[in-house]
Amino acid sequence: MEALLDTLRDTVEQLRVCAAEGLRDEVIRGSSDGDLVDALRVAGEAARLVDALLVESTGEVVRRSWTSERDLRLTTRMGCHDVSELVQRLTRLSPSSVGRLQKAAKSVLVEHRLDGEPLPARLPAMRDALIDGEVGVDGLLAVAGPLEAMGDRVAVEDLLAADAVLAAEARGVGPDGAPPACADLLRIQALAWSAVLDQDGAQPREERALRLRGVRLGRVRDGVVPISGALLPEVAAQFQRICTAVESPRTQPGVRFHPDDPNTDPFLPDQRTTAQQHHDALATALTVAATSELLPTIGGAAPTLLISVRAEDLASDTGWAHVDGTDEPVSPAAARHAGCAGVIQHVVLDDRGRILKIGTEQRVFNKHQRRAIGLRDGNCIIPGCGVPAAWCEVHHVTDHANGGPTHTDNGVLLCWSHHRFIDDGIWKIRMNHGVPQVQADKWYDNTMRWRPVTTSPTRMLDTIKRRT
Asked: What's the pLDDT at 409?
């Protein structure tokens, strides 16, 4: 062991010198493409070898701490509560990373019988690949997860056969002669092996997944509601498809905002993070579902979001609005957005709270108006957005609260995100003889001209014909 420690210390010192030269002196920054690729490849191999040492050492810590006598545990002797705490302190890794090391060690650790004879690892071929630096923790777990989930439902020889083939794929010497497989590809291949070998295993796994599924909404914090839980794979895949459809950039040709400069990119970069885009996609899907008239009714009516706001606050854009179902107040802008997207019912109260007048419910734009506006506008009218008409909401250009009519001459298509934040001022919208026009902020279009916008094929064809 002393020889191994001496070698490791020498290696760490060499790596420290290498990192100092390569990072502080910006040697990597000035390298050629070929040298950069080689450096990354060699660094990856070094990282995989370090993974092997971490996995083996963590597994041994687990073994030496696995006893009912507390005082005999390694963790106790080192003054730590459990294996995770000890490894965290020694490696400075996060709890989740240490948990992955423990899980990996379980798959490749060599146990011993009472007489001292070694027992083979659960995945011996993957263990050899790990020791040789051909696979790291990510790749090992990608294989171990699907294979070990089969449990005793699969014969040992079949499990070892899969282990051998997948280890060969990790080394780049698999049956197909493909290059070394990355962790994600190993996971896909391991899942395929699992499906072939464990043909009766889908039902138990499905039953467990059904028990684990769920979505939890937390308490409002900093103006947002935390969400957590676990989705079934097919539900997650459907949500991902919705996100892809809503977030897909340039799904349509878009509108050029600088017609005199053909070299200018007409598309405004999306400033939202991926998480924010996913949130807005979910909001879009929920709005589409709520207005589809296909959901079960509540009290004989479609699921309707109830928002109360004082008329003067809505007109002056001050104060707060209140949403039924949460104690957290929202802005008047949110109230206007909901009013455009759903159903409006006016309830007039006096200053003491007495109900003076109840108006009839009115759906802002009916399906016939939506179809007509969709044919006119094509998609969300903000240039370059491309969210299709079916996913858009119809926005009152002149607010409904300010007397704006529910008429096609006063409605335009906006996606959920652009509709919710239209008051930010980057984009301004007006109607000119029933045709929507958009004005961009000066930093994006220094002419600040009002320009007609559409992605409707018919209107675009008419525009081209007028120019020819």
From this structure: 92
Q: Which of 199, 63, 47, 56 is nearest to 138 (CA)?
A: 47
- Hey, CA dihedral for 322, 324, 327, 330, is it positive or negative? negative
243, containing H or E segment? helix 233-247
Residue 293 falls inside a structural domain? no
Q: Which residue has the tokens 């990354």?
A: 40
258 or 204, which is more confident: 204
12 is written with which tokens? Answer: 């760490």
Whether the per-residue pLDDT at 249 is higher than 60: the answer is no
- Are 125 and 134 a contacting pair, CB within 8 Å? no
Q: Give the C-alpha distances (Å, rounded to integers) separating 30 from 37, 147, 190.
A: 13, 44, 40
Does a structural domain hold residue 179? yes
Exposed e or buried b for every residue in 260-283, given b needs 16+ CB within 10 A?
eeeeeebbbeeeeeeeeebbbbbb
Specify the pTM. 0.54
The tokens describing 423, both together, are: 């008051």
Give me the helices (H) in 200-232, please. 202-212
Q: 98 is in which domain, residue-wise?
A: 18-200
Helix (H) or strand (E) holding 435: strand 435-440
Q: Provide φ and ψ at 430, rounded to 5°.
A: -145, 165
| Residue 219 CB neighbour total at 10 angstroms | 9
Binning pLDDT at 50, 70 and 90, where does residue 251 land? very low
- CA within 13 Å, CB half, 15: 12
Number of domains within the chain: 1
Q: CB-based burial of residue 321 (10 Å sphere; 0-12 exposed, 13-18 middle, 19+ buried)? A: buried
Confirm whether 117 is domain-assigned: yes
**Residue 185: inside a domain, yes or no?**
yes
What is the tens place of the pLDDT at every residue in 127-179?
999 999 999 999 999 999 999 988 888 899 999 999 999 999 999 999 888 89
> Is residue 357 classed as helix, strand or coil in its secondary structure?
strand
Cβ burial, residue 433 (10 Å; 0-12/13-18/19+):
exposed
Average pLDDT over residues 233-257: 64
